[in-house]
């Protein structure tokens, strides 16, 4: 891998991580604003509270189906 390719990969990984963290922060904010625990949200999504924690901390990606479910639960549009 050339230096240029390595730099592109590094930048892309940083961007991906930043996006996951920003999305996770938004999920946490919406969950708290709606008075839900991680367990309650997990039950509604069909995942464990540990998975919700991973979403909120940006450690795991949210698949498109669950992202759509979150949008419905919190009544927010895709922007």
Write the layout of secondary structure elements.
Elements: H1 3-33, H2 38-45, H3 49-56, H4 64-74
Helix pairs in contact: 2-3
Notes on the protein architecture:
The protein has 4 helices and no strands. Helix content is 73%, strand content 0%. The longest helix is centred in the N-terminal third of the chain and has 31 residues, at 3-33. α2 (38-45) crosses α3. The protein has 79 residues and is mostly helical. The protein has helices at 3-33, 38-45, 49-56, 64-74.
Helix content: over 70%
Cα radius of gyration in angstroms: 15 Å
Number of helices: 4
Largest sheet geometry: none
**Number of DSSP strand runs:** 0
Structural class computed from helices and strand pairing: mainly alpha
Strand content: under 5%
Average pLDDT reading: 88
- Classify the oligomer: single chain
Terminal-residue CA separation: 36 Å
Query: Stretches where pLDDT falls below 50 for ≥5 residues?
Result: none
Global morphology: globular
Elements, N to C (H/E): HHHH
In short:
This protein is an all-alpha fold and 79 residues long. The protein has 4 helices and no strands.
Keywords:
79 residues, mainly alpha, single chain
């Amino acid at each position: 891998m050339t230096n240029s390719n390595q730099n592109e990969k590094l930048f892309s990984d940083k961007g991906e991580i930043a996006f996951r963290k920003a999305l996770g922060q938004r999920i946490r904010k919406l969950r708290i604003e709606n008075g839900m625990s991680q367990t309650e949200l997990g039950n509604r999504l069909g995942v464990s509270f540990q998975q919700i924690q991973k979403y909120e901390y940006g450690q795991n990606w949210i698949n498109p189906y669950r992202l759509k479910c979150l949008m419905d639960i919190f009544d927010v549009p895709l922007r």
